[in-house]
Specification:
2 helices; 9 strands; 130 residues; globular
Length: 130
């Protein structure tokens, strides 16, 4: 398998560092709440999700150090990722039914790979007033 090739998802650059605080999935939409610097919060929303996986960073060493903080934390995977791996299976047919399918990779201690038909949306939730 090829080594991963990714590009930073541009709206994510406004948070230099972050930590995942929660992850929710309702069968179609994946919502990941993050905390950035100085108690700033944001919500990353993936719509039209085909699938996602959560793996410890130790299982994704091929992404390090090129695709990790401080270089970025949310990437669009162009090749060499989970989508490419699944596409090698004969009965994986999601790309046929959803040609706009892309993979996104969210870096954290537990990394999240998302297969989605739409790019994520990042909503600023403000700063905790505490």
């Amino acid at each position: 398998m090829k080594p991963p090739k990714c590009k930073v998802f541009p709206p994510s650059v406004r948070y230099l560092e972050k930590v995942i605080r929660s992850l929710q999935y309702d069968g179609e939409t994946l919502v990941i709440d993050i905390q950035g610097q100085e108690f700033s919060f944001a919500r990353v929303i993936f719509r039209k999700v085909i699938g996602f996986r959560v793996l410890d960073e130790r299982d994704l060493c091929e992404f390090w150090n090129t695709y990790s903080e401080p270089t970025g934390w949310l990437y669009e995977v162009e090749e060499g990722g989970w989508l490419e791996l699944e596409s090698k299976r004969e009965l994986f047919n999601s790309p046929v039914f959803c040609p706009e399918l892309k993979e996104y990779f969210l870096v954290d201690d537990k990394c999240v790979s998302v297969l989605s038909a739409e790019p994520p949306e990042i909503l600023d939730l403000g700063i905790d007033p505490k």
